[in-house]
Fold:
Amino acid sequence: MKYKVGDEVLVKGKVYRTEPEDNELPYSVVCNDNGVQIWPYLDNIVDPTEKVKVPKWFDEWYHSTDGYDNNDVQFINILSDTDIHELRYLEHGTAKITTHSFHEQDRVKFISAIINGYEVEKEKLYRIPLPNLKTSDGYQQYLSRRSKRNGHWFASRRQSNLIQAFTKAEIEQVPDAYKQYVVEVEPDENS
Structure:
């Protein structure tokens, strides 16, 4: 048997009804995903935790072993090891190993994310307007690329078919001469 008498467990379920209504002896009927009814006292019910927001790289690390035999306990054990301050994984579809350092305060946040679920933070995007460089009809030109695999950079006015908004990691690949012109893209601004 996995549990013994006296073990404390957290049961995930939906409150079906509470009885009695005057709460003299408060208990509730909770049905788990299999429809099994559980009758815990109301003060033993734990409210669902709000999902934490995690960076995109954490989500990539967490899913980097999809299809393998890893489970959440293994991920939690890795994060619980206070000697570990960076996570490594193979980028999807490549042989490139990616490493991300994390702060001590992130350790608990990441463990909570695995246990309670999480949302991926929207990554900040940056644009590089090129100073004193405008088109003949007056439009600002930006550092641009046609594809992420193509290493060629060029100047162009804003065009939806070009890559002109970059993540922080992508900014690191920009030629040094242009990094001084980086500006953050406003959230309501179109990419």
Q: What stands out?
A: The first helix runs from residue 56 to 63.
